Amino acid sequence: MLARVGAAHDSPAGREYRIGELAREAGITVRTLRYYQERKLLPPPRREGRIGWYSEAHLARLRVIGQLLDRGHTLGGAAELLSAWAGGYDLAELLGFERAMTAPWSDAATEQLTVADAAALLGGELTPELLDEAVRLGYIEVDSSGTLNVSKRLLDTTAALVREGIALPAILAAGRELQAGLDAMASLFVDLVVSHVVARPGGGSPPREVARLAETIRRLRPVARAVIDEEFARAMDRRAQDTYSEFLRLLTAQDRGRDSGAPGGTDAPGGRAGAE
User: Fold this and answer.
1) Residue 53: beta bridge partners?
2) How many CB atoms within 10 Å of residue 151?
3) Does residue 93 form part of some domain?
4) Is the pLDDT confidence value at 49 over 70?
5) Where are the alpha helices (DSSP H) in 122-209?
6) In a domain, 121, yes or no
């Protein structure tokens, strides 16, 4: 027993480590390792008296946890993935499915600029209140130095609308409504896929063919974009036609008003000019 204290050793189950040795091998502190154990991310060690011995499996699990955290997972998310892994799912396939589901849909370039530069591009309308609203909507991110990070495409389109005479508050108000509508559309499509592809018909657990599922999701991404683009184009066609028809109706009514001596006219029969 004493010969093994303070050093990793080999056992029938493979090499084993004391807690400090395991932490060094994993590149973390003992305090972090204990915290992982408290959060049930790491199984308890094998005990020999008061000494806990950790196996190569513990080290492999710690390295996986580190990789998941490096990928941006929270500890809770890492725990769920590890639980699925322990349940027989292939971790690499689970991460492939994650990439298929959560890969960014927008590939727009980001532009960095000062508040003064952004205000100049937007006709001087970028007040502190409107800047806060743009941040809440996710259109602008402000880093620790006060620099603005903005989608170049979004900035260009907003500036174009401002140049056409549309007030920035009205643009942001429309953006709020647009986000709500698009969130509903996205939810509709995601629910459709989850109900018929991810979950088994009639409810139940997701299928175990995670790699096949990830490939299906990748195929459906351009389908979703095509559907949304087409439906938006069709909606714009309908709305534009309705608006044009209403515009013509107003023009016609205006012309009839002038011809009939509407308020302010003097040519109508029975009017002052006619009486004379």
Assistant:
1) 46
2) 18
3) no
4) yes
5) 128-136, 152-163, 168-193
6) yes
Residue by residue, DSSP assigns 195-237 as IIIISPTTS-PPPS-HHHHHHHHHHHHHHHHHHHHHHHHHHHH
Residue 53 φ then ψ, to 5°:
-115, 130
Whole-angstrom distance, CA of residue 164 vs CA of residue 151 = 20
Phi-psi region of 51 (alpha: psi -120 to 50; beta: other; left: phi over 0): beta
Average the pLDDT over 107-120 and give the result. 88
- Which helix (H) or strand (E) segment holds residue 142: the answer is strand 140-142
* 41 is a domain residue: yes
Taking the C-alpha atoms of residue 143 and residue 227, their distance in angstroms, rounded to an integer, is 35
What's phi and psi for 148, nearest 5 deg? -90, 135
Alpha-carbon torsion, ordered 77, 80, 86, 89, to 10 deg: -90
Instruction: Quote the CA–CA distance of 238 and 121 in Å, as a whole number.
Output: 32
**178 inside domain:** yes
Structural domain boundaries, residue 202: 110-251
Supply the pLDDT for residue 246: 92
H-helix or E-strand spanning residue 85: helix 75-86
How far, CA to CA in Å, does 140 sit from each of 110, 114, 166, 216?
10, 11, 19, 33
Name which of 57-66, 205-214, 259-268 the model is least confident about. 259-268
Give me the number of domains the chain comprises: 2
- Please give the Cα distance from 245 to 182 (Å, whole number): 27
Both structure tokens of 199: 């979950």
74 shares its domain with 138: no
Q: Which two tokens stand for residue 257?
A: 């008003």
Q: Model confidence over 87-97: pLDDT tens digits?
A: 788 888 888 88
